[in-house]
Amino acid sequence: MMAIYRLRPIDGPACTGEQLAAVINAAAREMHLERWFISDVRPVGSWALGARGPEPVSVSLDALLAGLQAISQLESGVFSGLREDPESPRFRDGGVWTEDADSAPLGDTVVEIRAFDTSFIEVIAQEDVSRQALQAMQSVAGLRVVSNS
């Protein structure tokens, strides 16, 4: 059963590079995610890591966090975390888009973190996200859960 959470800032703009970096870093730490892929990234401003299309691109956690810290906000983006390092990770057929259905299969992805239209951040996980992991994701970025299913 998948867990889905929508996060919005307590105050100020949503989907900032700083917020996404904090959420991804907390997810990586709390959920023991070793490998990251990015796709459908549309930043406000320049973005050094590419991945503007739906084909997931592998990126190190350090490079991802640095890239996010360097931008002000994202219009869209999908950040896929995996626990293991499969040789050929499985993703959705047709690519990974921000606006894919919440129920879309995640393949080998443990958690998908999506930036939506500078409005909210969505966390979709293969398994229920522990309360500790969710609290870490919220508190480091000044976010609150506005819906979950």
What does this structure look like?
The protein is an alpha+beta fold and 149 residues long. It has one domain (3-148). It contains three helices and seven strands; from the N terminus they run βαββαβββαβ. It has a seven-stranded antiparallel β-sheet. β5 and β6 (120-125) form a beta hairpin. α1 (17-31) packs antiparallel against α2 (61-69) and α1 (17-31) packs antiparallel against α3. The longest helix is centred in the first third of the chain and has 15 residues, at 17-31. The termini are close together. The mean pLDDT is 87.
Supply the key terms.
149 residues, alpha+beta
Provide the fold topology.
Elements lengths: L2 E7 L7 H15 L3 E10 L12 E3 L1 H9 L3 E10 L28 E6 L3 E6 L5 H11 L1 E6 L1
Antiparallel strand pairs: 1-6, 1-7, 2-3, 2-4, 4-5, 5-6
Helix pairs in contact: 1-2, 1-3
Count the helices. How many? 3
Strand content: 25-35%
Q: Mean of residue pLDDT?
A: 87
> How many domains in all?
1
Helicity level = 10-25%
**Cα distance, first to last residue?**
10 Å
The number of strands is: 7
What's the order of the H and E elements?
EHEEHEEEHE
Rg (C-alpha, Å): 14 Å
Structural class: alpha+beta
Principal-axes geometry comes out as: globular
The largest sheet, given as strand count, sense and whether it forms a barrel, is: 7 strands, antiparallel
Please list the strands of the largest sheet in the order they lie side by side.
Answer: 3-2-4-5-6-1-7
**Which runs of at least 5 residues are low in confidence (pLDDT < 50)?**
none
